[in-house]
Design brief:
By secondary structure, the chain is mostly beta strands. The protein has four helices and 14 strands.
Length: about 350
């Protein structure tokens, strides 16, 4: 196929997927608007990348060769090497384990494909009647299957889209949802500056757990990453939940949050120390998590996260620590290889 035809085909695919994403958003609006209560499938907000977790949880702007970052911004696939496989594992609250896998494949000079899956297993739990009588054990599972495409819109701009199939099963109750995520990234390699805008999990339930349809944890995020010119230090700033500015959205049973506190709750701050091209140390702070964990009675180390990574030739390993639940700290591990 001639090069011009390949470019036209890649653009055609990108536009088709973007149109599909907008159709999912429009068609699901009527469904999700029926119920403005709490959202479902909140496992989608848990980290899939140990490096992102170490920088506060949800970095959308890191221009790294890390295939797991496409779960939070599909446009970042443009920075990942061809035929890259990434496996991730997270210990969540007591008895819960989460895993994810992602694979990235180049498609011509400007395009990139990716496939991914994420699951969260809650282990075995006691099933009881409304009277509190035990009737046995049951298991619960959340699962995400996703595929995406990124296209270089220019020398420094990349746009990406993913489509998502989401499934949950709790004992005899099941739910299915369809969604899409849209991402845009600007990366100036000369100045080592990256900026991103992401709309995540736009969609709705096609099968509810019961009679009432609930919202997905959709999110609008913006972030930038900048490395200092004269020092091996890189800063990452991310703002999430940009469509939510009510104090009712943030957990604080004692009183309503003031605007200044609500504003801070949207921020995640991270820093990388990069002494060499194959090693980094990371630390981050998540203002919302710190506030909500403190309100829940667990203030020790709340909001803080730490991590490290080693990447040599075709291999990369990342580790991170943070606290996502009052019962136990979370540890995440990612292993990546270029096939």
């Amino acid at each position: 196929m001639p090069e011009n035809d390949k470019r036209m085909f890649s653009r055609h695919i990108f536009l088709k997927l973007s149109t599909l994403a907008m159709i999912l958003l429009t068609c699901s609006g009527a469904v999700s608007a029926q119920e403005e209560g709490t959202s479902v499938f909140n496992f989608l907000s848990l980290p899939s990348s140990a490096h992102s977790m170490a920088l506060g949880g949800t970095s959308v702007s890191m221009p790294d060769d890390d295939a797991s970052l496409f779960f939070f911004n599909p446009a970042l696939m443009a920075n990942v090497e061809d035929r890259t496989l990434n496996l991730g594992f997270l210990t969540y609250m007591q008895g819960c384990k989460m895993g994810n896998v992602s694979f990235v494949k180049a498609a011509g000079k400007r395009g990139t494909w990716a496939l991914g899956a994420k699951f969260l297993g809650y282990g075995s739990m006691q099933e009881t009647t409304v009277e509190g009588i035990s009737v046995g054990q049951f298991r619960a599972l959340d699962m995400l299957l996703t595929g995406g495409y990124t296209y270089m819109l220019g020398e420094r701009w990349a746009g990406g889209v993913t489509t998502e199939f989401i499934y949950s099963k709790y004992a005899s109750y099941t739910s299915i949802a369809l969604a899409a995520s849209l991402g845009l990234n600007y990366y100036n390699q000369e100045n080592d500056f990256s900026f991103s805008l992401v709309a995540s999990h736009l969609g709705g339930q096609v099968k509810a757990f019961a009679d009432t349809h609930e919202r997905l944890p959709y999110d609008l995020s913006v972030g930038f990453t900048k490395r200092l010119a004269e020092a091996p230090i890189r800063f990452t700033v991310t703002m999430t939940d940009l469509t939510r500015w009510s104090s009712d959205y943030f957990y604080n049973p004692e009183h309503d949050e003031k605007f200044g506190k609500i504003l801070l709750n949207h921020f995640q701050l991270g820093v990388d120390i990069i002494p060499s091209s194959f090693f980094h140390l990371s630390a981050g702070f998540n203002f919302r998590r710190a506030s909500e964990m403190k309100s829940a009675g667990s203030s020790h180390g709340s909001g803080l996260s730490f991590g490290a990574g080693v990447h040599v030739k075709r291999f990369r390993i990342d580790l991170a620590y943070s606290k996502y639940h009052v019962s136990t700290p979370g540890l995440m591990f990612n292993a990546q290889v270029r096939l």
